[in-house]
Amino acid sequence: MNTNKVFIIAEAGVNHNGDLEIAKQLVDIAVKSGADAIKFQSFKAENLVTHEAPKAEYQTKTTGKGSQFDLLKKLELSLDNHIYLKEYCDRKSIMLLSTPFDFESVEILEKIDIPIYKISSGDLTNIPLLKFIARKNKPIILSTGMANLGEIEDAIDAIKSEKNDKISILHCTSNYPTEYNNVNLKAMITMKEAFKLPIGYSDHTVGTEVSIAAVALGAEIIEKHFTLDKEMEGPDHRASLNPEELRNMVLSIRNIEMSLGDGIKKCEKSEENTRLVARKSIVALRDINESTILTERDLAYKRPGDGLPPKLYMNIVGRKASKYISKDEHIDFENTEQV
């Protein structure tokens, strides 16, 4: 994933609410936004959670009481759904990604020839699943919410043990939404320095500021949830962007990535005219007669910058005027001579 262009993943997740028509609308929104990929989530509730597994606190707030199993069962995508969405994304020229949460779902994604595997923060320590996915020999994007460096290292080692080193890592805070004081964006830099791998950010904050800031800090991948409507029923809608916000985020990221440049400090071509106008030249402070020995009191420094630059003033001091020099006329090596 290490390219000059930021890879933007529009995270639909389970915001399709189990409805294929909503999923298609989400694809259309992702395409219009200019995102590089749209990502869903692939799971079988029976393989993912026990029947008694409690909901996360944020899920209870958005969907009420009950078990994770009942919630997730309604949000499954079938093999036929996956095939349809892959064909639809291909027609719309956007990459389809999905996060598999179990072995069976990995095989479903293999059937539709998913190009990249995204692994959720919750499976960072699921070494058997990591190894299984790694053996597919495709690029892996690994989210690191809730993890410390040691756990991330274990996950990377597990993937590499299967002869797969095509790994990118995303900083993430696994709370929905994430408060700004819990983002710890500098940890993304820590991970880059520690593991020497492409890094990015999976954003669960409200708004787009942190994703944009992550790009400015060197993120090569951005993942952000989006929805048709934040008021829809479901666990993730309220922590997601609406279509307009998604478009604005993508545009902002594209502007930031252009503004980062190549890192070479130089006069840009667009600045050349300004440099001529804004910089200054050595000129005569007053009328100067021929044969006058020049001192600093004879010199002024004025725009435009089409003459000798002020930094060379000591190369002029002590020289003799070889001709009459009028006030504000350039003083240079052509109208002065060595004594």
TrEMBL record:
GO MF annotation: an example: N-acylneuraminate-9-phosphate synthase activity
Q: Does the keyword Phosphoprotein apply?
A: no
- AFP-like domain ranges (all copies): 281-339
| Pfam hit, one | NeuB
Its EC number(s): 2.5.1.101
| UniProt enzyme class | transferase
Q: What superkingdom does the record give?
A: Bacteria
Q: Keywords in alphabetical order, please.
A: Transferase
NCBIfam families given for it?
NeuB_NnaB
Q: What is this protein called?
A: N,N'-diacetyllegionaminic acid synthase
Q: Which organism is it from?
A: Andreesenia angusta
